[in-house]
Amino acid sequence: MRSSSLIIAAIVLSSCLEFVRAADEKPNEIEGMWMIAELTIDGTVTNLNDLQLAPNVVITADKFQIGGRTVARYTLAPDGTPKLLDLRIGEDPNADISEGIYKLADDTLTMCLRPAGGVKDRPTDFASTPGSGLVLSVLKRMK
């Protein structure tokens, strides 16, 4: 009986500490619910109706989720110009990093990424031209 009470107390305390930690942390600027508005891969505009994934993206403090599944983990470096974004596709912490840049203007998030593969050549512009190998995506914040 006593061990059950200790477990419950630990859970409650843990929840309270998590709430206090969460209250102190400010969400980063890209967290929220987004809808894919445009996607250009290697200079080719993708017909979003042909995509076989949900157009809604949830961005948490460190993950991109589509359909409730984590599709990538990310880190931001928001202090430079342009702002930097690194993605690791999937759940594997050792997956290759896709290096990119991002900008946020009102409720529009624009990202330009170089797909993973070990190339350390981060995009410098928000463009995906034929032969560039870059992925340009534009997301709109859902309200």
Characterise this structure.
- It is a single chain.
- The protein contains one helix and nine strands.
- The chain has a single domain (27-141), classed as Lipocalin (Beta Barrel).
- Strand 1 (32-41) and strand 2 (44-45) form a beta hairpin.
- The N and C termini lie far apart (47 Å).
- Helices cover 16% and strands 41% of the residues.
- It has an eight-stranded antiparallel β-barrel with strand order 1-3-4-5-6-7-8-9.
Which short descriptors sum up this protein?
143 residues, alpha+beta, Lipocalin, 9 strands, 41% strand
List the helices and strands and how they pair.
Layout: H1 2-24, E1 32-41, E2 44-45, E3 56-59, E4 63-66, E5 69-77, E6 83-89, E7 97-105, E8 108-114, E9 135-141
Antiparallel strand pairs: 1-2, 1-3, 1-9, 3-4, 4-5, 5-6, 6-7, 7-8, 8-9
